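User: Continuing from earlier, I have the next pair ready.

Assistant: Great, send them over.

User: Here they are, in order.

Assistant: Folding the first of the pair now:
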Amino acid sequence: MITSKDIENELQKIEEIAPKYAKAKADSYQAMEWKKTQKSLLFAMAVGRTVADKENWVAVQPELIVATEGISEAIEKEEKLRWDLKQSELKIEIWRTE
């Protein structure tokens, strides 16, 4: 059985997690935009005769690999916080239906 104290704790968690989630979501977006910027800059420096040659060159550059890893980390953090929020919301919903 979920008590009123449990609900207060869940509401407190939501208040703590929500701003962190918003920041993580913004970081994910920024990381994706950074990758696009890096890709454009690298494409301008790429060696090759065809677009395919340039795209292949860009794809293996360390800068793009680091940007991709940054996106992965940002999304992982965002999703963990999203599920933490969802868990608190579900506990409150269960309490409401008891």
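And the other member of the pair:
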Amino acid sequence: MELFKGYIPLGGKDGKVPSEPYKDRKEFYSFEQISELKGFGGVLNDHLVQIDIDENKEFETVIKIVEDLHINTSILRTSRGGHLYFIDNGIENRKQG
């Protein structure tokens, strides 16, 4: 499963703010083009949903639930918790929060 359609540079105080517009954009940087930058982020493919959990204890709890229910997902561990990626089966609205 290809997670990202490409990458964009990030900046801002926390290093998580896109430095370039990405909504409705068709072309992105490759990993090789952007990997030397201090901050960059992947732009998810349209058919994917990312769940971001910033607390390690909660992340481990969710992983246990996902494994116990045999839910198919890709998992990426981060320094604070992690991300889970799921195929979007028709969610009408994506919401951050």
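Worth noting for the second one:
The first strand starts at residue 4 and ends at 11. The mean pLDDT is 90.
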